[in-house]
Every structure is written in structure tokens, then in C-alpha cells.
UniProtKB/TrEMBL annotation:
SUPFAM superfamilies membership: B-box zinc-binding domain (SSF57845), NHL repeat (SSF101898), RING/U-box (SSF57850)
Pfam families per record: zf-C3HC4
InterPro entries given in the database record: 6-blade_b-propeller_TolB-like, TRIM45/56/19-like, Znf_B-box, Znf_C3HC4_RING-type, Znf_RING, Znf_RING/FYVE/PHD, Znf_RING_CS
PROSITE patterns noted in UniProt: ZF_BBOX, ZF_RING_1, ZF_RING_2
Protein's name in the database: TRIM2_3
Amino acid sequence: MQRRLADNITSDHLSCPICRDTLKDPKLLPCDHSICYECLTQLIESTRRFNKFSCPVDRREITASSYIISAEQWASSFPTDDLSLLLLQAISGDNKTETKPKDGIPCSDHPQNVCDFFCFGCYQIICSECAVENHRSTECDCKKFKKCADLAREKLRDAHDEIENLIRYGQDTVMKETGKDQLLMQSRQQIRNTVYKLKTIVQDFEKMINRKCLDILSNVDSVSNVEQLKKRTEGIVKDLKRVRDEIELSKSLTSTKDILTVLSKIPESLQKNTELLYSLAVSDNPIQLKLELNEKFLDLCDTLVDQPIGTVHVVPADSIDFEDTEATVCSKRITFSSDVLPLRAFELEPYQAIQVEPSESENKITARFTGVIIHGHSIIAIDNANFKVQRFRDTIENQFIDEVSIPSIYDITNIHKNDDVLVTAPGTQSRLIRLSSYKGLSIISEKVTENAYFNISQLPDYTYAVICHSSPSCASKKRVNFHWSRGVTSHIDIIDVDGNVLKHFSEAFLCEPTEFGDPFIMPLKSICCLPNGNIVVSIETKTNSFISCINQNGPVKWTYDLNDTPEGVCFYDGRIYVFLRESKVVRVLSVDGDLKPVSTLRLPNYFGDGNSLFVGRNLLSVIDKTELIRIYKLQC
């Protein structure tokens, strides 16, 4: 009976579904079916080109983790079915000779058994019956004690490493939080010290004001003290009454000696009291006191009352560096902090570059670009060295379209809602030229100008602002010895599209020489116009470099010191872009509401001076009087 039961178990549960023989080196598939190692290797080999095979029992597909693994390696990767081996040993009677160790660990579920298995899935010490009955899931991995040592040591090492990592993480967390707390405490203390210092300054200021007010009041009291005057006058009158009484008394005296004695004292007493009365120097005119306060002091107090004392910035300790900047707005000098240092600059993405090779003629002249605009779907550039206006496609690098030759050309700008453009040509005979770009670049009209027009920018009311450089009248008579560094004056003209001058702004008006120093060689460098008609120009004097904004109908609206040398300026989408020569970055200023810096842009692989700047249609272009125009993608 037992033999037949053992044979049935062997044939039904412990036989290979492929060879039908008793399992040999059984491998356990993910679907919990077992196959001989050799049969599994042959099965994998037969379906190797599909990189998968199906279980011969339930047809479940099993896919290999890689195409390069061999059939033997894949078959060996499946776990050994230790439970089937255990059952085979029990049926064959091999375990009858084994004796249970007396010092073994008794099983909690089967007290009659000694534990000789360990489940690495449940991390439990179990007996053979537990392994057969309760640990048959795919998560379980039961192994006999004698096969557990290496795997157990590996699991212990993994657990040890994991615990060490957790300990380090906890210690690092405490250290970081401690460091943060210390930095926060230092920041709080620094702010408190600053506030206490400010409070002390205010208290000292209040004491000084009180002292000065007391001085003023004491001076007021010293002008005329009626009480003292009254007391002194009453004393003199009292003494005079005494003298008068003595005289009345002497009249009734019979002795001549006594009368003469009284009479001898009267002149001295009269003289003394007369001098005392006149020493009071009381004027018949009424006295009125008037206090004239210092107007500058009052203006300063009004300004301080309206200004915020300070702002607390809650930011990561290493994420923002602040830079102090200054500006003069509406004749008031203000200082503020901004988080737009060059080291925090946002790097733009290069878009394309324009570089034209010189012609193959004997006298090759390298291009010298001085101006650029985006017009339609093309880029129009000014080559000042070769006297050419050249047009390129805006999507393909160096894709030339057409050109036109014009002597002494310098800068270019668009005409409002028109296919035409305006070009300045400050040569021997300075001109303003209108070009058509409808089919090909061609000259429509020319206007000879009295002054040499260089940089030009478009105003919103169909007018244009141009920078003019002119030499003294004597210079033209000695053209051979003339040098730009001597006697050059700069100013701005407002002109119409035909070149007629509508307004004129001198360099003294633009530079405010009383505050920033006298202008010197061509101080006006680059220009741009705002939608409200104001004009922004970059200026360099003997002692200062700044940008200035002027109103066409009034004085300078504001000046802004960027702690650097501004070169090219441009306006686009509510912001002013300024190239800073020393930092090699573009500073972006917001003019929406308050004037303030909002970001800093770094141009990768650019090392020029940025004499001119153009921003439009989310593209930023740098022109620096060289043979290369760099264009960057502006991410708004």
C-alpha cells in the first residue's frame, strides 16, 4: 500500500513533464512547475531564436532577460526545487538512516520535528513539513541548513551595509539640520544686530534733534526775558523811591550840615540808577521771532519716511548672491540689491552665426559688421568694411540671399509696418538712405545730412533717434591731420523718415556733467527707444559709465550705474538689454513699474566687446565690429 502511494506521488508530482522520468536536478519555473535541468536546457535551445519559451504544463511564456545569455546559463539561473528533492529522498527511504540531532531547534508548528530548513523569503527557521505545507509560494526560497551558510553570510553583509547606510544617513541628517540651524541662528543674530544698530542710530538721531531743539528754545528764551526785565526795573525804581524819600525828608531838616550831607549823595545815586535803566536797552518796537528750518533736512526726512527700512530674504544659503546697484530716478539717488550677479547668469543657447568669407580678389577685405536687424524671415546685416548691406536667411547659417553696395554705411533699422529699411552712412558726405527689400535690396532715396549719423533706433511715432558725431568747423579745413580723439562732439537728433531734424539733444544735456563728469571722446555709444517715446543711451565719461533715459519733452528721467561698462543697448518686450563689457554678460532691466534688474544672461563662447546689441523675435544678436555675428536663442 505504501509503495503504491509512493509510486503515485512520484509519477504524478515528481516526474518531469518533458521526459516523463523522475526529476533529476529539478529547476523551479516562475509558474511553480519543475523540469529537469537537461530537459529545460533542450527546451530553451529549441526556442532560442524567439528569446522565450513556454512552460510545458500551463503554456505560460517565460522571456529571457538578454539575447546574449546561453541556454545553459538561462537554465541554471532558475532556482533548484529543494522541496522535490526532499520528497524524492523521503520516498526512496534515504532519510531513514538519518538521525535527528538531539541539540537541534524544535519546530514551533511541528514539535516532533527538528528544524533543518531556512526560508530566505520569510526569514524563518522551519522543518521539512513546514517547507512542504506553508512555504510553496514564489516569494519563498527554502534551503537546507548545510546549503545556507554562504547565502546567509551574504544576506548578513547586505543587512549590515544597509544598516550602516541608514546610520550614516541619520547622522548626516542631524549634521545638516544642525548646520542649517546654526546658519539660521547666525542670520537671525546678524539681523538683530543690524536692527539694534539701526535703533541706536535712530535714538542718537532723536537725542541730537532734542538737543538742537533745546538749543533753539534757549536761544528763543534769551532774546527777551520779561520776568528778569521786570525784576531789574523794580529794583531800580525801588532805589529811586528811596532817594526820593530821603530828599523829602531833608526838606524838613533844620541843620544845614544834614541837608548838605543828603544833597551830596544825590548825584551819584541818580547817575547809577540812570545807567541801570538805560542799560536795559528796551526797544519801543515789538519783537517777533521766526524759525527757518533747513529745507534739505526736511526733504531728507520726508524721503526716509517713505523708504522701506529693509527686506528679509528667506532663501537657500548658497543659491543667491546679492549685488548693490545704484540709480538716479527723478533726481533722487537710490540704492538697491539684486540677485543678478554675473556668476548667477543664465546661459543662452547658440542659434546660428553669420561669417562671410572675403572675396577671391587680390585685395581681400575682411567683413566688419556694425549693425543687424531681423526683417521678415531674413537677417539684414551691415558690412562697414566692404560697404555692403547683406541679407541672409534666418534659419540656415550663412545662407546668403542678396546684397547692395553703399559707401560708408554704418547702422540699420526697420521702418514701421513697411518692407523698407533706413541705413545711416556717416562718410565724407553723410547721408540717410532708404532701402527697399521687397524683391531685392535696392536704394529708394538718399538724404544728405549736416551731421554724421551713426547708431539709429526706431521711435513709436514714425520718427527715429540717431547718435551724431561731429567735429569742429576747423577740423574740416585740415582733414589730413584730423583725429577723432580731439574736438569731437556727440549729440542725439530726432528725425523723420526723410531725414528732417525735428529735435536736438546736446551731449551736456544727456550726460549731466555736473554729476557724472565732463564728457570726452564720443561718449554716446549705443541707443534704443522705448514704446513711450523715451530714449535710452549708453554713455561713457572720464569718470563714469552708465545708461541714461531721456524724455523728449523734459530733462533726464533716470540714470543707472551698472557697476560695469555698458556697451550695446536694446529694448524688447518690456525690458532693456545691456551688454556689460567687463563681465561679458547681458543685464536685463525691467521698465514695467520700477526700474530694476531682473536677470543676467551669459553668451557661451563670446569674448567680444558687444558694441551693438539686437533683440527681437526671441533671438539675441551681438555685433562688435568684427567679421562674425553671433545669434543666440532667447528663452523668455
